[in-house]
């Protein structure tokens, strides 16, 4: 390219190398991928159904801006649902049918066991849909161990009859046919907007095609177990106002769980929560429109003294307790976010 047409951008090099751990908990083994300096505060992630950290969060963490914001402020602990680990790294195997299916409470307790394994006290949490439910439940059961929640298309109520029956249909599909094309189509509709999924005239987006390929690695028996756990979830709405942490919620306007996110936002303490709606986006905002998350997340983390680039005023191991922050910083206005939903649209012109 001619030098007159080129642009030089100085971007600090971010290391995305991580290490996979298989941790034996009191409720079975779980895979955790650790990225970053373990002397820094912890950010725990949990993905949606049939996804793992590669297929649910790499779009967000591969953004240079997100790397600057998150990877410099936190050590990332990415928990995979049991049996959902990255196959080509650890060789995921089918969980024996003799082992009882874990409940959502078991999965939340498993998160606590992971924190104990790594010697972590209070952590920030980032979850997507089913993973958002698990981390919210974890925050209710272990309030002192969560300093903040960032939730993407979250769930908080028990499944409606429609969702329950649909999930039973998916369960039968997995049991008899495995991760077949129809099952993948159903999951893609759960994750992505119509624009990303394409149609007869417009092909699927690259991110959807990549997700289809990654779904081939999932073992249907393991996905079935996680689906059964999520389909057996219970309503945790009554405990939302008792949460002792600030909460930032993202939801795509095309998400099947859009109304769930609105309901959850209405039940949280409005002083310590905010909702961001993302236009032309499905449930997995972290993959479809990760750039839409950056500015709200940056303002949210400023309330904890975290900035981009990282500027710690004290030891990185010091707890980021909201009680150490002046009260005015705990308001949604201090995040730069209005209480009513913010509509965002991200377009890149090259």
For the largest sheet, list the strands in their spatial order. Answer: 1-2-4-3-5-6-7-8-9
Overall outline: globular
Q: What's the tally of helices?
A: 13
Strand content: 15-25%
Biggest β-sheet strands, sense, barrel: 9 strands, mixed
Kindly report the CATH topology: Rossmann fold
The topology string of helices and strands comes to: EEEHHEHHEHEHHHHHEHEHHE
Mean pLDDT: 84
Number of domains: 1
The name of the CATH architecture is 3-Layer(aba) Sandwich
CATH level-4 homologous superfamily: Alpha/Beta hydrolase fold, catalytic domain
Q: How does the helix and strand content classify structurally? A: alpha/beta
The CATH C-level class name:
Alpha Beta
Amino- and carboxy-terminal Cα gap: 15 Å
Determine the fraction of residues in helical runs and give it as a percent range: 25-40%
- pLDDT below 50 for ≥5 consecutive residues: which ranges? 1-15, 310-342, 344-350
Let me know the number of strands: 9
Radius of gyration: 20 Å
Family: Belongs to the NDRG family.
InterPro entries: AB_hydrolase_fold, NDRG
Organism: Cinnamomum micranthum f. kanehirae
Keywords: Membrane, Transmembrane, Transmembrane helix
